[in-house]
Target: Mycofactocin biosynthesis peptidyl-dipeptidase MftE
Amino acid sequence: MFVAHLTWPEAGACAATGVTLLIPLGATEQHGPHLPLSTDTDIAAAVCAGAATERAGLLVAPAVPYGASGEHAGFAGTLSIGQAALELLVVELCRSAAETFSRIVLVNGHGGNVETLRRAVALLRAESRDVRLFSPGYSGDPHAGRTETAIQLALSPERVRTELAEPGDRRPLPELLPLLRAGGVRAVSPNGILGDPTGADADEGAALLRAATTALLADLGRWWPQDHEEGPHR
Model:
């Protein structure tokens, strides 16, 4: 299931069967005082692993833990490589991966990566590489709020500082966007939270993860219906 666990002959043998490579992309950025910096990466990796567990013909690449997180500047621990570097990284990574794997899906866990990844995918597809982008959509709080807290509680409850969870700026995202573009998250939320993480629970998070995995599998079936017709792995 994981490319990094294979030898090169094993990877070649898998590629010969027409497998699809899933590449999780996230970020290393602040998620309030209660969630780890790896939250976006953790979620992307979990969605990929869940899909590969349920359906044959999927391999998961090592996650890319850095993204375009400039909006989180000013919070300790945020490590952003910016849009230009992210686009270059993804393009070169997929060019390399396409030498082995004919189909690649970027599974993105950080909203700030989306526009950059769309540009990268457009370029790669113009080069006749079969690369797709999947970004799970969640209703609810936009950042470090109830949604992401619930998912992290389902994944790694020991890494969530629930005693530090507190509300942040709870205004709707459309209202916040102009302020975020002008001054970043720090300008609207001193604790880094957009939403309210209090009351989140692991059951809710497990359901959200399940929904994201189901959505990814549905897109895979839509992109490559001949594989979908073969049925689930288990």
